[in-house]
Amino acid sequence: MPGTRAKAGIEFNRWMRDVAEGFPDATCLSMTDFVESRADIHPDNHFHRLVYYRVFEHINGTAP
Fold it and tell me: In the prediction, which pLDDT does 3 show?
């Protein structure tokens, strides 16, 4: 997992969690829950496409 995070990203994530609290059907996910190895994280703070696929599979499996 990356040891440092961009300040703007941290602030954005905090804001998204605050907004989501107003929507009872909204759930925030942590991308790191879908990372299986350091190879899944690109140097430019993006993720390998398989990480996004794992997120999709999670959402697809839990959506009503």
Answer: 46
